[in-house]
Design goal:
mainly alpha, 2 domains
Length: 148
């Protein structure tokens, strides 16, 4: 094996250390090897992971629904657009912590839908911090000037 030095932000390393402490990975090195192999296997069609027990680690740390294309249909999570509507309702009422709890309890960490919902929630937070969105009347002049 080749030794390589990589610098990571401190919060990333802390999360990796937590996974090791919880027994998800035997060591930080195993995490780094697995994560590099995982990304390469998803990015390059011909790539074969070299990590020892790669398949066993993948089965343990990544839920089956996330590994299969179309796995969302049988997932134990609500339909995505219903989640967006519910998140919107909570965010418009200023219930950001309830919206976070909803995401945390309905989706597994790293789920692509959870990531999108977190991003949407962040947009609502920013909007609330800046005093809300522009009224439809303010948007109308632009729309009519394009139509003329």
């Amino acid at each position: 094996m080749v030794k390589s030095t990589v610098r990571f932000p401190e919060p990333v390393v802390e999360e990796i250390e937590t996974l090791v402490e919880e027994g998800q990975f035997e060591s930080k090195s195993e995490f780094y090897r697995f994560s590099a192999d995982y990304v390469l296997s998803r990015t390059l069609d011909e790539y074969e992971p070299a990590t020892i027990d790669y398949d066993a680690i993948e089965a343990e740390v990544i839920p089956e629904a996330e590994r299969e294309l179309g796995g969302d249909e049988e997932a134990d999570e609500p339909p995505f657009f219903e989640s967006v509507a519910f998140l919107r309702k909570l965010a418009l009422r200023g219930n950001f912590s309830d919206a976070e709890d909803f995401i945390d309890h309905q989706y597994v960490p790293g789920d692509r839908h959870a990531v999108l919902l977190e991003e949407i929630l962040q947009l609502y937070r920013e909007e609330a911090a800046t005093g809300g969105r522009a009224s439809p009347a303010e948007d109308e002049p632009e729309a009519t000037s394009r139509n003329q």
